[in-house]
């Protein structure tokens, strides 16, 4: 393709002008993203498709001009060159829009580059851009691909303009053209136009809150809706295509456009749109009705969540209109949306005017409730969601009227409760039992308000306890299948009214006396105690503590008498009771009386002697502090109705509780410290959390007293012989108390831990905790120690450093670096070797800490300062001072490349890689080039450890560094990498292949291939290209087979450096292997076939369909139920008596299979898991290591498998005596020796088979006409 119109000189001048004006605003990250997009276009210069080849050739022409003029490839440069090219095409009237023409290619590249162009550049060249592209709209109407490119270009243009430029006539006309395209019949064009309008309105120019075009879009949408509502839309799909069909499609497209745009429209424009939406369901089109109702629901939901009142004024009219046009209950498409509109509208009405909403509550409730009887699950789900919203509309006046009306009253709320209660026994609501229980749960939750603020009685307790008791009775019935939903209702009731009220109405019936009376036990209520509820702590002390003691005695008795299973039951019940202790500790109002010395002593004994009960007791003591602190902190906040209704006590009462608990801190500290010392290291975490919470409440003198005791024991532990465990325990306690110490104690503790007996202790744990204490002291900022002296002291103590303590040492050094004065940066060179070698530590946490130390030193050097070379170890005393910078720091780190050991060189390469990635925008180009060329030399090393690190750096450099910096080194880089492309050890072959894939994506296939040089080496690149194309074809086939299956990407690690260095593995790893067998897919599901509920028939009891129907419902299919006596049909019966005949000599299949399984498990299962090819073992860190597939192991497995089969066949397989088969037809013609006239399988002679039928049979083992096998 030739571009004679391409004026190179004009492009050059325009590029220079625009670059000088806005080059500083081109972000580095934007250039990287744009380059990745352009890299996908460059390889298509040899494509056979014209629409791919044209943009690639144009891009190649532009970039060749950039190279000739030595211009940078910035978004501004591309934009200016493309504008100039477009101007030349239009002037020469080369405006054809075919696939291989220039104009579509120019628009495509402009659309790609425009989002990365700085807004000032677009604003400056707005007139030129509009004069060139706006007249193209009429011509582009018939060509969808260039039209989409034009729309993408205008999306970037509109978002870059300021308020004054949006008023330009050409801009407004262009936006009007795009607005009309939102109803275009072509889906891609329509979606692109709608996305532009949504994006433009979502990002108004600063400082406006709403876009100036929002009102215009609202007026256009309103007019279009009115036009759509006046047309007669078809009621079925069988109508022919005509004007009606186009009108229906237009209305559908309009509603799809309106949904995402509505939140950005002016508030005053919403009412007319809402009025017009209500007219669409009358047209009779199901989809339009559903979409209109759905948009109305979104409007009401937005008005409640955002606090706007855009549609509040119309709610009465909307409710009236919606209630007047109910859909048929059998209409499964419209009913869910219609029901949701009622719920959302009522809740929005409640937020705006609660009293007016209460007058409509009963009417709307009855209307929505009537749809509960439908068999469609989606409709029932919509009913449950809508009724949930309606329960939130219940006001205190409705509650008071219902309470004063009495149980036999007919108030609206009483009618709702009565209707719900009757539905539990009604057969009409059998299929909706799950949704019905969720509605009851919402009722219980939303009626949790107090009737009288002076009393603790809630509306749930006054009105709903009979209904809750009925659900509890259903829960214990044997045939009831919705136990989880019933548990949700009971759990909600437990949270709202508390165990004191609920257990009075629904007793547990767990003790032997209750069981003897025939009462059903309700142990399922015990797990529900572990949640915040309003019951007093005294109820637990008076009710559950004696019960747990009685159950503990029963456990001891059963244990002593040898009834282990019964003892286990009582033990579980005791544990469940105490698990509910934390629920009582959420800000109880009687804490002063309930937390008596006797009860506190009981809790202490449980902590000492009962390990199973220790966690729930600790959770309760922790919740006791945290809940009161949370409520007490609300004094300074806005005490609205929501915050006040959720709390059982006031902030003043919570403050009084905290004052009382402060008096108990000292005694509880003694208990917690003793428990902390008695448990092992793995179980100290929870005890430590409780100590930290109580320490936050303690007074300073209590903290100081506890600290002195711990420090004294800590110092005494060094004088003991076997003091490792005691020392580490004291250190753990000191770590817990650190945040609450004063400055004097902090300084003394820092000096104590910065000692040889701590940091050089023979126990690894003591060293680790010593460094951790020092790091935490620095982190809290309470230490005023000299950083240089601390560094010197740490350097002296590094001789006895344990490998386990290196992580905490690196963390400490990272914090100390921040305190080094800018004129004393000479300490950094002495730390570099230790930090660099730390990147090779076996521990992952230690490696990460070493990387953080390297980065921290780099950040310190980048802030500036002075490096006194004379004070650096190993430097001349008369050395000059150097200015601190990131380049100077890179030079220091790179000094490790001259190390004597390959381990040091490899660690230095890894450290340099991290610095290049972390400071890629700060390191200058010359330094980046020097580092790259230096490390490129190491690719010729013979040491694999060095090669591994160098390949990691090359991979990172290709991903991170600019293309202009790397392109000159391709001729050296590509051959060096190809030298390792056939090395399989250390996965070098896969690593090199992945590096080449990235290089091809960034530089293009031609540049990389030309740099390969030799023919043999270039074959590797050809193979990569073929594999990539094969992988694309395979992926395309998979997408065609299953379009809905999402591709699985590699999960990011959360660390950008780790993701670049080790992530995004090659997409071609398995492309050259045979495709795996497709996994078996489930059979096609029958859509539209609903497995409804059934009645469980019991022949022993008569069925009452008016009472207790819920316990006789089942969702299981009747023909799949296991019937009594079903297994008896497998046995022989005596013909005379009808009795089952069992032969004792024969063994059943179950006995034989169970004996085989027992033998296998007992004899060879463990050995096979350790020795077989399919077995595996677990390492010390828990990771699975599969056994190697060796020839010896396969041979042993084959021998074992053969022996087992022979043994099983000889021992367990009985010989079957074949009965003589009936003679085949034509057997008299069968020859005794010849095989030509009869098949080997024993079927009819060939004389009776037609020759045509015999000739059709295919296969390797078929018998021919002559009777011989082929």
Automatic annotation (TrEMBL):
Residues 1029-1227 are annotated as: Disordered. GO terms for cellular component: nucleus. Signal peptide: none annotated. Keywords: Nucleus. Residues 375-678 form the RRP12 HEAT domain. SUPFAM superfamilies: ARM repeat. Residues 1087-1097 have a biased composition (Basic and acidic residues). Residues 1066-1075 have a biased composition (Acidic residues). Pfam families: HEAT_RRP12_N (PF25772), RRP12_HEAT (PF08161). It comes from the Eukaryota. The keyword Nucleus applies. It is found in: Nucleus. Residues 58-305 form the RRP12 N-terminal HEAT domain. InterPro entries: ARM-like (IPR011989), ARM-type_fold (IPR016024), HEAT_RRP12 (IPR012978), HEAT_RRP12_N (IPR057860), RRP12 (IPR052087). Belongs to the RRP12 family. PANTHER family: ARM REPEAT SUPERFAMILY PROTEIN (PTHR48287:SF1). This is Armadillo-type protein.
């Amino acid at each position: 393709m030739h571009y004679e119109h391409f004026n190179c000189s004009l492009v050059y001048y325009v590029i220079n002008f625009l670059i000088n004006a806005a080059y500083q605003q081109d972000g580095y990250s934007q250039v990287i993203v744009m380059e990745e997009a352009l890299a996908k276009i460059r390889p298509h210069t040899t494509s056979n498709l014209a629409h791919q080849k044209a943009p690639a050739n144009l891009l190649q022409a532009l970039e060749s001009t950039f190279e000739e003029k030595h211009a940078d490839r910035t978004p501004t440069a591309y934009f200016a060159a493309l504008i100039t090219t477009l101007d030349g095409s239009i002037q020469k009237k080369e405006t054809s829009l075919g696939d291989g023409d220039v104009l579509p290619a120019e628009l495509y590249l402009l659309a790609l580059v425009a989002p990365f162009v700085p807004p000032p550049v677009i604003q400056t060249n707005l007139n030129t851009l509009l004069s060139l592209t706006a007249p193209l709209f009429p011509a582009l109407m018939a060509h969808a691909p260039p039209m989409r490119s034009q729309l993408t270009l205008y999306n970037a243009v509109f978002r870059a303009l300021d308020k004054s430029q949006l008023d330009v006539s050409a801009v407004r006309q262009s936006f009007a053209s795009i607005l009309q395209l939102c109803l275009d019949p072509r889906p891609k064009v329509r979606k692109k136009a709608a996305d532009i309008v949504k994006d433009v309105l979502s990002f108004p120019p600063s400082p406006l809150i709403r876009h100036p075009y929002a009102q215009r879009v609202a007026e256009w949408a309103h007019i279009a809706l009115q036009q759509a509502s006046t047309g007669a839309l078809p009621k079925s799909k069988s109508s022919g295509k005509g004007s009606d069909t186009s009108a229906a499609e237009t209305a559908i497209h309009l509603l799809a456009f309106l949904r995402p745009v509505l939140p950005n429209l002016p508030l005053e424009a919403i009412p007319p749109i809402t009025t017009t939406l209500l007219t669409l369901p009358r047209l009779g089109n199901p989809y339009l009705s559903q979409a209109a109702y759905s948009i109305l629901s979104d409007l009401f939901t937005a008005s409640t969540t955002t606090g706007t009142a855009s549609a509040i004024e119309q709610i009465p009219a909307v409710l009236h209109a919606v209630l007047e046009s109910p859909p048929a209950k059998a209409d499964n498409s419209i009913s869910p949306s219609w029901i949701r509109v009622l719920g959302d509208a009522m809740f929005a009405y409640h937020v705006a005017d609660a009293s007016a909403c209460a007058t409509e509550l009963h009417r709307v409730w009855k209307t929505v409730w009537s749809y509960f009887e439908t068999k469609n699950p989606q409709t029932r789900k919509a009913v449950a969601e809508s009724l949930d919203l309606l329960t939130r509309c219940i006001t205190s006046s409705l509650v008071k009227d219902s309470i004063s009306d009495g149980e036999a009253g007919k108030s609206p709320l009483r009618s709702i409760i009565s209707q719900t209660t009757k539905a539990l026994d009604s057969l009409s609501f059998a299929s909706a039992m799950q949704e019905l229980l969720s509605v009851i749960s919402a009722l219980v939750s939303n009626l949790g308000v107090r009737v009288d603020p002076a009393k603790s009685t809630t509306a749930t307790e006054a009105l709903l306890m009979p209904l809750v008791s009925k659900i509890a009775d259903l829960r214990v019935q044997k045939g009831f299948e919705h136990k989880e939903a019933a548990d949700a209702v009971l759990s909600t009731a437990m949270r709202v009214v508390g165990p004191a009220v609920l257990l009075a109405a629904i007793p547990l019936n767990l003790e032997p006396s209750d069981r003897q009376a025939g009462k059903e036990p309700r142990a399922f209520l015990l797990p529900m105690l572990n949640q915040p509820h309003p019951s007093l702590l005294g109820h637990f002390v008076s009710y559950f503590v004696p019960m747990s003691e009685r159950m503990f005695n029963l456990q001891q008795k059963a244990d002593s008498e040898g009834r282990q299973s019964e003892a286990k039951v009582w033990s579980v019940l005791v544990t469940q009771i105490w698990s509910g202790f934390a629920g009582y500790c959420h800000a109880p109002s009687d804490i002063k009386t309930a937390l008596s010395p006797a009860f506190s002593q009981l809790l202490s004994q449980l902590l000492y002697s009962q390990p199973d009960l220790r966690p729930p007791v600790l959770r309760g003591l922790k919740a006791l502090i945290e809940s009161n602190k949370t409520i007490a902190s609300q004094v300074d906040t806005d005490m609205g109705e929501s915050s006040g209704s959720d709390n059982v006590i006031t902030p003043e009462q919570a403050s009084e509780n905290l004052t009382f608990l402060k008096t108990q801190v000292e005694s509880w500290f003694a208990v917690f410290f003793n428990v902390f010392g008695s448990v092992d290291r793995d179980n100290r975490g929870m005890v430590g959390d409780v100590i930290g919470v109580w320490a936050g409440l303690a007074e300073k003198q209590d903290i100081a007293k506890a600290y002195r005791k711990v420090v004294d024991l800590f110092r005494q532990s060094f004088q003991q012989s076997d003091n490792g465990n005691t020392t580490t325990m004291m250190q753990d306690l000191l770590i817990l108390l650190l945040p609450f110490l004063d400055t004097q104690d902090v300084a003394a503790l820092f000096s104590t831990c910065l000692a040889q007996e701590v940091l050089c202790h023979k126990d690894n744990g003591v060293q680790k905790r010593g460094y951790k204490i020092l790091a935490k002291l620095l982190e809290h900022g309470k230490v005023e120690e000299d950083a240089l002296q601390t560094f010197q002291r740490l350097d002296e103590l590094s001789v006895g450093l344990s490998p386990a303590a290196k992580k905490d040492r690196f963390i400490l050094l990272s914090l100390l670096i921040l305190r080094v004065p800018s004129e004393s940066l000479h300490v950094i060179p002495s730390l570099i070797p230790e930090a660099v070698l730390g990147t090779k530590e076996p521990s992952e946490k230690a490696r990460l800490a070493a990387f953080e130390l390297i980065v921290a030193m780099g950040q310190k050097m980048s802030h500036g300062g002075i490096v006194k070379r004379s004070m650096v170890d190993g430097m001349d005393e008369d050395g000059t001072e150097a200015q601190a910078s990131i380049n100077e720091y890179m030079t220091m780190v790179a000094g490790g490349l001259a190390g004597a050991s390959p381990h040091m060189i490899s660690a230095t390469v890894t450290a340099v890689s991290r610095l290049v990635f972390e400071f890629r925008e700060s390191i200058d180009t010359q330094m980046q080039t020097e580092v790259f060329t230096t490390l490129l030399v190491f690719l010729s090393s013979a040491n694999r450890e060095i090669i591994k690190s160098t390949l990691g750096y090359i991979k990172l450099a290709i991903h991170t560094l600019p293309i202009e910096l790397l392109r000159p080194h391709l001729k050296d880089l590509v051959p060096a990498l190809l030298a390792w492309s056939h090395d399989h050890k250390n996965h070098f072959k896969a690593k090199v292949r992945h590096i080449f894939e990235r290089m091809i994506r960034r530089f293009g296939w031609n540049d990389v291939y030309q740099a390969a040089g030799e023919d043999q080496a270039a074959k590797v690149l050809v193979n990569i290209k073929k594999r990539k194309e094969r992988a694309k074809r395979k992926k395309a086939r998979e997408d065609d087979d299953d379009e809905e299956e999402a591709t699985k990407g590699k999960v990011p690690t959360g660390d950008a450096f780790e993701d670049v260095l080790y992530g995004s593995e090659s997409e071609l790893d398995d492309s050259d292997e045979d495709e795996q067998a497709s996994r078996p897919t489930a059979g096609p599901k029958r859509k539209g076939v609903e497995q409804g509920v059934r009645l469980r028939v019991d022949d022993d009891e008569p069925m009452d369909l008016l009472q207790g129907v819920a316990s006789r419902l089942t969702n299981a299919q009747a023909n799949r139920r296991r019937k009594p006596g079903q297994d008896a049909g497998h046995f022989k019966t005596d013909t005379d008596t009808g009795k089952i005949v069992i032969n004792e000599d024969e063994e059943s299949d179950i006995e034989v299979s169970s004996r085989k399984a027992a033998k296998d498990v007992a004899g060879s299962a463990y050995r096979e898991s350790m020795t077989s090819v399919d077995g595996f073992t677990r390492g010390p860190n828990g990771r699975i290591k599969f056994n190697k597939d060796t020839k010896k192991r396969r041979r042993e497995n084959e021998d074992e498998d053969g022996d087992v089969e022979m043994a099983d066949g000889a021992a367990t397989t009985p010989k079957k005596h074949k009965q003589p088969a009936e003679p085949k037809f034509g057997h008299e013609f069968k020859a005794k020796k010849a095989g030509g006239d009869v098949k080997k399988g024993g079927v009819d002679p060939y004389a009776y088979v037609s020759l045509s039928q015999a000739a059709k049979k295919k296969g390797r083992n078929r018998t021919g006409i002559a009777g011989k096998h082929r």
